[in-house]
Design a protein that fits this description.
This protein is α+β, with helices and mostly antiparallel strands. It has a seven-stranded antiparallel β-sheet with strand order 2-1-5-6-7-4-3. Helix 3 runs antiparallel to helix 4.
Length: about 130
């Protein structure tokens, strides 16, 4: 399933996302998260020590929400480790997107590159759009 042009335009804005994963006991786990849209695909980046990563490795079902109140894009789908991507470069690009060039590069260098990171692609099964 692909994102509409309208959904892509909204997602290109600098919004935070909410990523829901499934805990071992079946409860949802919800995290506010930075993301990037590249070539029509949604990516998030996280440390391998995070609960969301462990949840996705066990059960890849996710719900990804980007909203500005009622305007929103919600993606039900699967999280998959994007092994073909450079996770360190991705977190640097995402940090720059949210923090600006100078602070983003500093955060990448001083914090994120010291962690074992992965990039997760959100592969859509169903997309709901209310814009």
């Amino acid at each position: 399933m692909k994102l509409t042009a309208e959904a892509k335009e909204f997602l290109e804005g600098k919004h935070f996302a909410k990523l829901a994963t499934v805990m071992k006991d079946g409860r949802p786990q919800l995290t506010p998260i930075w993301y990037m849209l590249e070539k029509g695909k949604l990516y998030v980046n996280t440390a391998k020590t995070r609960v969301k990563y462990k949840n996705i490795m066990r059960d890849p079902r996710v719900c990804f929400l980007v909203d500005d109140g009622y305007p929103y894009v919600m993606v039900f789908g699967t999280g998959r480790v994007a092994t073909e991507r450079d996770a360190d470069k991705d977190i640097e690009n995402i940090a720059i997107r949210y923090q600006g060039e100078k602070k983003g590069k500093k955060s990448a260098r001083d914090i994120y590159w010291k962690q074992e990171r992965v990039t997760i692609e959100i592969v859509p099964d169903r997309v709901l759009v209310s814009l």
